[in-house]
Write a structure and sequence with these properties.
With about 270 residues, the protein is an alpha+beta fold. It has 2 domains: about 1-45; about 45-260, Muramoyl-pentapeptide Carboxypeptidase, domain 2. Helix content is about 45%, strand content about 10%. It has 10 helices and 6 strands. Strands 3-4-6-5 form a 4-stranded antiparallel sheet. The chain has a two-stranded antiparallel sheet with strand order 1-2. It is globular, with a radius of gyration of 21 Å.
Length: about 270
Amino acid sequence: MKYLSLLLLPLILVACGQKNSAQKSSKSTRDSVKQSYAAHSDSITIPDSLHITKKFVTGQFNFRKRNNFVKVAPQYADKRIYLQKATYRAFKKMARSAKKDGIRLIIVSGTRNFTYQKRIWDRKWRTFKAPSAYEKALKILKFSSMPMTSRHHWGTDMDLNNLNNSYFAHGKGKREYQWLKAHANHFGFYQAYTKKSLHGRTGYEEEKWHWSYMPLAVYYLKYYNEHVTNADITGFKGSRFATKINMVKNYVDGVSRKIKQYTPGNEKNK
């Protein structure tokens, strides 16, 4: 047995070395993407005309009473949904183009302010089971944002057609997703949460349904990073874990590489 252990030792060391190398490579990729995003963000200037505030980017406002928000027409939504006017105009152009190709785009979720997001979070907090409160928070965060951290606060992001990745894996759903991947960027819309195995993305699991209008969202993300910290994320059950989880770095900034590299004014960014 002693000799067998000695024979196996080199193999074990090689395996451990490969594992450590893979982990270092993955960390290096994540760090590289984060550094490049920080440098790219520094080159973006927020227009004064947007009048962005900390309360706005954290969802602490009533979007129904904002004159730059509008209710989506029933032909484009399956319930009462609001978006920023600029986002909605761009979506309608995209939807009309998709229709010509036999693709119907329906918005199943749009703007969600702090109160709206808190209802979703609190419901899952009551119903989800986990060994600890911290693990419960992580479980919810696979697909749902903590209030104050959701891109849906901004009126720039929408969920399209279905809320299950499996729907987009075959048949009609697959054709819809393929169309979006091929054409959505040209209208300013980008998939926020791609596969986590790509480019070291952190945070939420892949969401093939979540698309963000970057001509506006690029400025809100930059402002968020410059003005909001984990300590600001409060007011709901489990919010005490925001700092431990590092919500801003791992989730708010846990978006696709295309979004991190997006340049305002060029709707054909790749």
